[in-house]
Structure formats: structure tokens, C-alpha cells
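Sample intake sheet
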Amino acid sequence: MKKMMIICLAAMAALFAPLPGAALAEDLHAGLKAWVWVYQPPVGPPQTPPEYQFNSKGALNRVGRLGVGQYQVVFPKLANWGGQAQVSAYGGAHYCNILNWEPSGEDLIVRVNCYAPTSALADGSFTAFFYKEQGTSTYNRAFVWADRESTDSYVPDERYQWNTRGATNSVRRSRTGKYEVFLPAIAISGFRENAGTVQVSAYGNSPARAQIDYWGRTPNGSYVRVSTYDFKGEPRDSKFTLNFSDDVGYGIRIPEDRLNMYGAYVLADQPLAAEYRAFDFYHFNNFTGESVAESLITRLGLGSYRVRFDGLKSANKSTALVSAYGRRGEYCTIGGWNGIGGTNVNVNCFNAGGEPADSRFILTYLTDETVLW
């Protein structure tokens, strides 16, 4: 059972690797996936509890603290160039960004920076997620690394973007801190008439924040609008990573098997409501593989929410990711998760100054378990 209380475990050793360089001559990896909850205690090194991490190669993930607010997550045996990385702060009012990721020997290194609301580097807990797929399919999933923050229109590096339909994603900048990611041929009303879900993380070595404004469809595909802000909540240009999916089977290479993964996502779009059921078009709760259960959002207090995924049993080696949704510059963090009454995930949201604030958000919950028919 997942516990909301902090777990104290032995510290993992820190590793260090160089900054990104040239691509490998050939990348034969596909279907890679890993996540980790990094707990930073008030005193001592960060920890990675085994029950809150997963690695598709069966290895034990590690973390090292490189300096104040600076972390290096090691996903063993997942070395590759490309893929997608996301991060969500856990607990407190800090926020975290992806600094970079790259292979080192047979391992994959993901570096994360965390910041206080004032923009100063600050120690903090977080969840980190990486996956990579290749090839094409009829389902809807895509990711991009938007790495040219001041360019008005461009096609991202092909190693760091992917589209299940074999199309090439693109990014357009309309003004400072405002972007639109176009995902050709991706349909948001496909499987079970579902709009899918989106996660975004700011990228780089400066204290930016990223949030989802909106996503929708066109006759030729889907688009996602992203806003990036400085620590004061003012628009600023920033790199970011973005992921879109209409299911929770990340890293699953066989299309039929992707629907057999326990997991859920939801758009919580009524920040002032005391309690409500999520709109079907923007939530997915896969607890049987054949039917989709409901998701209940409860407002616990100012900026504090609990999402209950009905029927979704507590699963070992799970993780949660959250992104703020809207155009006001808020940010949200994971408050914890457990398996009482289904699966409950707590989310806390803040204004630019780090004070609790009501906000819409997008939540994704992943597990390593498959549905038992």
C-alpha cells in the first residue's frame, strides 16, 4: 500500500556524467521506460525507495545530489539518445525542471534542478519519468523536446520527438512564452472517444515554469498550447518537454498490450468545486482493461485536492505526474498517493509566489502492473 508519509531508506551513491554530445552511431533501443520517486530528507542524501520506482530492464534506479537543488537520476541499462523526460515536484512549494538527459555507458542519466518560489536552487523531493518508443502504430501518442525557445517555427530534433503515426511534430512560437506544438495525424477522439492527456516540464538551467494552456484537434491532427513563465509568473521564453498520450501503456511495443496496464489520468478543470466527477472526455481510468471507471476530485482546501481513481487498486512501483492547466502562471506538485477507496492522489497548487492557490491541473498515475482478465 502506498503511504502518504515520508519513507526513510538508505541513501544511494551519486554518479556524474558529461553534458550531452553527439548522437550514437545507431540506437537500437525501443520500448524503454523508467520512473522514480526521489525523497530528499531534511538532513542527509536523497533516497529512492524501491517500492516507488520502476525500470523496464529490471534494474534498481539511483540518485545523487550534485549540489543544492541539483540531482542526477540514474536509470541503469536504459542508455540511449532521445526519448522523453518529465518531472514533478513532490511536497512543499518548490518546483523542478529537467536540466538534461543523456547516456553514460549502459545507463541513462537524467539531471533535475529544483527551485524555491524565489527562484533560488533548493533541495526538494520529486518524481521523474522517462520513456522512449519508436516505430508506428494506430494508437495516439507523441512527444517533443522543444529546444529552440526563441525560434518562431521549427521542427524539433528527430531524436527527441516521436509520433505513433509516423508524422513529424513541429513547434510554433506566437509571442514571448507562448507556444503551440502540432502533432500531425494524432486523433484526440479515438479510443473510447477520449481527448487523451498531456504533461509538460520546463527544460534547462534557469528557473522557468511550464504549463498547459489547452489542447485540441484540427482536421490534420492535434495541437497543444503551452505557456512558460519566470518565477514571478511573467511570460518568458523557455525550452520544455511535452508528452501526449490517450492511454497509460507507455513503453509498450505491442498495441494490444497497451490497454492492459493499470493506470489513470484526468483533467481536473473545476478548481473551486467542493467535489465533482471528471468529464469523461478528459479522463481515463483503466482498472479492468474492458471498462473505464470514474474519477472523483475533491477540494480539500485552498489549492489542495484529492483525486480518487475508483476501482484502481493500489499497485506496487507506481508514480504520479502533474502539470498546471490554464493561463494564469500557477504550478502544481504531487502531495502523495495511497490505495484507500481505489487509488487516491493528492495535488497541491500554488501561485507564482509559492502561496496556495486554486488551479486546474492535469494528473497522470502510472503503475507497473497489468490487468488480470
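Comment: The first strand starts at residue 32 and ends at 38. Confidence is low (pLDDT under 50) at residues 1-30.
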